[in-house]
Amino acid sequence: MDETSIRLAYNQRRGTVGLPTRWDAINPANLAENMSTGATHGAVTYCAFICDNEEVQRCLPQVIIARNKFFTQAMVRLAGFILPSDIDIWLENTSSWVTAEVFQRLLRRLAQSLHGFRDRFNFILVVDALRSHINAAAAALVYELGLILILIPGRLTWLLQPLDTHYFAMLKAKLVAKFCAARLQQPNGELPKMVWMQFVITTIHEFRGGDFVHGIARSGLRGNQNNSTPVIKGLITVAELEAADDALPTAAELASYLGRVNVPFYELLMQPLEEEMSSSESSASEWEGPRPSIRILV
Questions:
Q1: How many other C-beta atoms lie within 10 A of the C-beta of residue 7?
Q2: Are the CB atoms for 53 and 67 separated by under 8 Å?
Q3: Is the pLDDT of residue 44 over 50?
Q4: Less packed terminus of the chain by CB within 10 Å, N or C?
Q5: Would you say 185 and 161 are in contact if contact means Cβ atoms under 8 Å apart?
Q6: What is the CATH number of domain 2-218?
Q7: Closest CA relative to residue 5, chosen from 62, 61, 45, 56
Q8: How far apart are CA 216 and CA 64, in angstroms?
Q9: So what's the pLDDT on residue 236?
Q10: What b/e sequence results for 62-97 when a residue is b if at least 16 CB atoms lie within 10 Å of its CB, and e otherwise?
Q11: What tens digit of pLDDT does each residue of 267-280 get?
């Protein structure tokens, strides 16, 4: 799962459209698109879910999050006539981005879509280390829903996140082409929001049914690591990989490699275990014994 922003317009205010009476008097530097500031700044968040199983992929939710000032309830109801069952539009009051509360709603929506496959598969959810993904409430909910969570360290999504490496760029390139072609057909060069919404919905529906096996394998998320050579080269040399210890790193070791901000629940992991604390005469504030070697897999 990952999020990306889809803008209302990808053109800049400076462009190739001009309406002067004398074309020979045009200063090319002053040519500009007929586009409002609101169009260049307006955007929604697209929360995408993909997997390497075609049957499951067809059921995974695709969620568009927008501020209620961006879309009206009437527009959403109208869009419902063309909205596929796997695409949701959520209107939020404050922000269109994924907050901790919205992420928990996304987890519940995901679990609902996976209900029919629980007897055949265990599900591993891969997300980046966004602050809204890393909190105790989200971790408890992941456990409650029976999911296995893997976090991609910060600044490595360009290499390890399949949605970043094999999906979002193609999706946006297709959307930009559709937006530009549609604007050329409008008398004033402006794209109505309902037309924009239709393009977004149909393009997501078209792309979400693609084959993501290759992208997930190339990102190192499948069992056959021979397919993930770019990942190995991007992270570590083969010689270093062969010389590495098989033991999983401790929280402190991960923090030294990745930075504390990229180690989820670092403070909790570094605290002495409860049973060790209860057997010691020292209080928690006076604890001076060795930290327990709590090992986690990221």
A1: 17
A2: no
A3: yes
A4: C
A5: no
A6: 3.30.420
A7: 45
A8: 23
A9: 57
A10: bbbbbbeebbeeebbeebeeebeebbbbbbbeeebb
A11: 666 665 444 445 54
